[in-house]
Design brief:
Strand order of the largest sheet: 4-3-5
CATH superfamily of the largest domain: Winged helix-like DNA-binding domain superfamily/Winged helix DNA-binding domain
Order of helices and strands: HHHEEEEHE
Number of domains: 2
Strand content: 15-25%
CATH topology of the largest domain: Arc Repressor Mutant, subunit A
Number of strands: 5
Length: about 130
């Protein structure tokens, strides 16, 4: 029984490492499965989904839906950036950029105070064209 617990801990560690190593890039469940397989670890998709769900609840990773990508995409959250930025995906090159903008923060505050709407910024993705593609 103890071995099973260690096995799950190892799976979790490898899934988190996969997301961490991708830095600012978002990864899919399928990409996580490929990473694990390439690492010589066989993990079922159900286990990956369950582990990713736990990591989301813990605030270790963020999940968003990105146009043109089947399923959710996930990114590692560094502790000091949990609500420090707003992600924007360039519709031309696909790059995800961190936007640090006090005006967006004001908008979120306004929505919360005036309209009683609380938006989880970790689940929001803005779309546009980045400075490289203009």
């Amino acid at each position: 029984m103890n071995n099973a617990k260690q096995y799950n801990t190892k799976q979790r560690e490898l899934i988190l490492r996969c997301v961490k190593e991708n830095g600012d890039r978002y990864v899919t469940i399928r990409q996580i499965a490929e990473y694990l397989e390439d690492s010589g670890i066989k993990v079922g998709l159900t286990t990956i989904y369950r582990t990713v769900g736990k990591l989301l609840k813990e605030g270790r990773i963020a999940g968003v839906s990105i146009d043109g990508v089947s399923g959710k995409c996930y990114r590692y959250l560094v502790r000091d950036e949990l609500s420090d930025f707003f992600p924007m995906k360039c519709e031309e090159c696909g790059r995800v950029i961190k936007i640090h903008c006090s005006e967006l923060e004001k908008l979120y505050d306004h929505l919360k105070e005036e309209h009683k709407i609380e938006i989880d910024s970790k689940k929001v993705m803005f779309y546009g064209t980045c400075d490289r593609c203009k």
